[in-house]
Amino acid sequence: xxxxxxxxxxxxxxxxxxxxxxxxxxxxxxxxxxxxxxxxxxxxxxxxxxxxxxxxxxxxxxxxxxxxxxxxxxxxxxxxxxxxxxxxxxxxxxxxxxxxxxxxxxxxxxxxxxxxxxxxxxxxxxxxxxxxxxxxxxxxxxxxxxxxxxxxxxxxxxxxxxxxxxxxxxxxxxxxxxxxxxxxxxxxxxxxxxxxxxxxxxxxxxxxxxxxxxxxxxxxxxxxxxxxxxxxxxxxxxxxxxxxxxxxxxxxxxxxxxxxxxxxxxxxxxxxxxxxxxxxxxxxxxxxxxxxxxxxxxxxxxxxxxxxxxxx
Length: 312
Ligand code: CP
Prior knowledge:
This protein is of the alpha/beta class and about 300 residues long. About 35% of the residues lie in helices and about 15% in strands. Helix 5 packs across helix 10. It is globular, with a radius of gyration of 19 Å. The structure holds phosphoric acid mono(formamide)ester. The site of phosphoric acid mono(formamide)ester has 10 residues, from helix 2.
């Protein structure tokens, strides 16, 4: 593996290898001294041109726990704010001998473009409305943990995964659909017609506008954030009406199978797409997803840079 730009880059063998190694990495999280020598001597730059709490922090922790030198760069405080182009910024930093760039960018396709300019490995940490492959991997990891804890068959094949909400603006949904195509989960997308991506009928997944009909059959219910910052028009009348049609309200919890898991990649809009009762329910896996994020990103960085690996 040279880069991780899309969930579609991963073969089934590679995806499972990342998930399996993440289980070993998760052990490190539980140790008093959280340090492995695995990436000693490697340099990773986290470049976040868009806001992030979970992804930026977990990539930084992942790099540090594996003894890599990690540096954070954001648009504010770098020469990007003086008008330097993304290409010149990437070429400049690449010339310093960096081994890996972890990039979040507001424009779809910008991370793949950056990968064409540099010798280092590149990880897509979320590009516009396009993809967020490490989120899909950590979601899969948290699903597998849940299946194990709920004592249901562990594999993804045939598992019913409902992904609900603002799918139009979501990079998380695209990466999850691509990864589950590889792993075998049966994805159903649920959204109002105004929040479905163009061309979704070619994605090879079921589509529904009826959340109440989908919930009783789902093994996993993944609620996605209403991305108001990416909305310019009236996609739904009011937040209250959105919640009534497509929110995981306290009343709807009764529709779920007892062994079903509730997930949300965060950040959550409590009271809009997910109620506090659902976010904090016993079968909510939201914080397990966050915890998995560090282990999965350690595993991804190791797959790219560990051993004799690395693009340079
Ligand atoms: N899920 C996710 O990408 O969250 P952040 O924007 O906080 O990184």
